[in-house]
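2024-03-11 09:14:02 INFO receiving multi-entity request
2024-03-11 09:14:02 INFO entity count = two
2024-03-11 09:14:03 INFO echoing inputs for audit
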Amino acid sequence: MLNIKNLHVKLEEEDKQILKGVDLSVEAGKVHAIMGPNGSGKSTLSYVLSGKDGYEVTEGAAYLGDIDLLDIDPEERAAAGLFLAFQYPVEIPGVGNMTFLRTAVNAQRKARGEEEMSAAEFLKVVRARAKELKIDADMLKRPVNVGFSGGEKKRNEILQMAMLEPKMCILDETDSGLDVDAMKLVAEGVNALRNEGRGFLVITHYQRLLDHIKPDVVHIMADGRIVKTGGPELALEVENNGYADILAEVA
Amino acid sequence: MSATAEQPNATEARIANLNLRSEGWSGSARADAVTRLRAMGLPERRDEYWKFTRPDALTQADAPEAAVFHAGEAALFASTDTLTIVFDDGVFNPDASDALAMDYLSIERLAEADADIHWAKGVYGVLEARGQTPVPRPLAALNTAFATDGVLIHVTGKVPKPISLVYNHSDETSDAILHHVIKLDAGAELTVLENGPAAARFNKVMEVDIADTATFHHVRAQGRDHERRAATHLFARLGTESTFKSFTLTVNGRLTRNECVIELTGDDAIAHVAGACVGDGDFHHDDTVFITHDAERCESRQVFKKVLRNGAVGVFQGKILVKAGAQKTDGYQISQSLLLDGDSEFLAKPELEIYADDVVCSHGSTSGAIDEEALFYLRSRGVPEAPATDLLTLAFLAEAVEEIEDEGLRDVMVDRLEGWLERHRG
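2024-03-11 09:21:47 INFO inference complete, emitting structure
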């Protein structure tokens, strides 16, 4: 599904190498987690994959199926099935959440040559999905993320994911800023979307999110590389011993 | 309006071929207006009030040519039930207009109201003259003196449907001067819609006298012709507990100067004036507002938003004057521009002048580009750059458009903006 090969990335504006050869493959139907200390390059990886400005790929490749992600615009990556749940969802004053969702859904459909969703059909689907995530009608009407609490913003990300039905979901520190109940709700939303055809890459500092979204594979990232890969037990090891032991071991 | 050798000549040259009507009830008002105009002289570039906008094209003897433009859009407000009055290049078109009659109002054309005694005498040129201090507005005096037509509307109750003034432009050298007078009795309500480019050059004055507890709504779209030029003045006087709400949409037009002069003379009155403008290329748009608070507990609100690109220029001059004794005044003013490229320019001069000690007045002015974070967020959800930019542009204008109280009229304006943005991508 997602294949990253020897990815090297530096900041566009300064001579600072962030990713130093990332190799990673996420298969359809699997949940991979990336853990790692601050500054290891986890968020950069998610931004580079989704096409944010400010980064320069100096070497390597990233493919979604047979699509060269690094060669196309962010909107084309989205239409191809890539979705990034933001660590800090952006507030957009003046754009209603519903308008935003419908514009996004129909833009992707149009890009894929599919028929656009009618207003009535859209409304029906969005209401059902919103209900599962305990998102009330008021949140749908308000401007995108404006005045939303941390938990509401993250639930809104999962609602977008549910509406857009991507093939490959990247969750960038979706647990940050969430209390236990909110995290459970978000995790349930993600779990409901798990299926054979969809891959997940869950980026997190902490093991606790992985109690709720059970990963198949856990990677440890440090200094711009994947330094260790294992099963769910690797996350527990981090939880118990911190990163220091693992980093010492691979050094 | 400083005294220079050639300046009186410029004024005389401008009015030399205009016909000053002396007969009927408006004769003395017109004569007074000419006297005012000659004393002030037409605006010149060195005048402080015209620092950001070159008045030449508005004051020169002959109207500069303006190509007629067919946008291929449906007529605005066509789906709204209105009493429609049509002017073609400033000339009344009886065939395209509805009968000038409706419940709770009397309506006449300025050109036909020749009697010696007329209710409009108490308003025509009166509000304009009051609006000449402290800042002179010579183009409005010129209008009062030489207006060829317009409508005189006396409203006595709650009028069931809007009056729609349609201004068609079909002559590349037309030079139109229209003057409307609207008088609302106590408790009366009226909505006036205006739309269309009107003429190659358009000078329009609307005087609105709003009695106690009356309500006046005004929604205007200034037409899409790229080359037309317009100077408009809206003078309003508000009585106790009355309401005035005006919104203007401007898309294109080489030069537009919209002056709005509001006097809050009765306690607890409300005046809102808003504008959304989108300019592309050779486009200069000037909103000049002067609101005088001369009573207690009045609220005024100015919301102006401009989207500019390819060298378009936006101007905002907004003043709130709170006179001594106008306690508990609530004044708000915001003017913002969204510059879609580095070539465009926004010039703002917000002013507060306050002589009462218990008031709340705020003003703000900003200039910015599209929010890159928001743009990336939209693109990451699959919305391509052009429609994502449109969406953010509409969101920027929303605060001004939302000033329109009627949801149907608001939607009409949003539709027009969406259409414009879609056709003007990139």
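2024-03-11 09:21:48 INFO post-check: Chain A touches chain B at residues 50-53, 73-75, 77-79, 84, 86, 89-95, 99-100, 103-105, 107-108, 111, 143, 160, 164 (CB under 8 Å).
2024-03-11 09:21:48 INFO post-check: Chain A has a mean pLDDT of 92.
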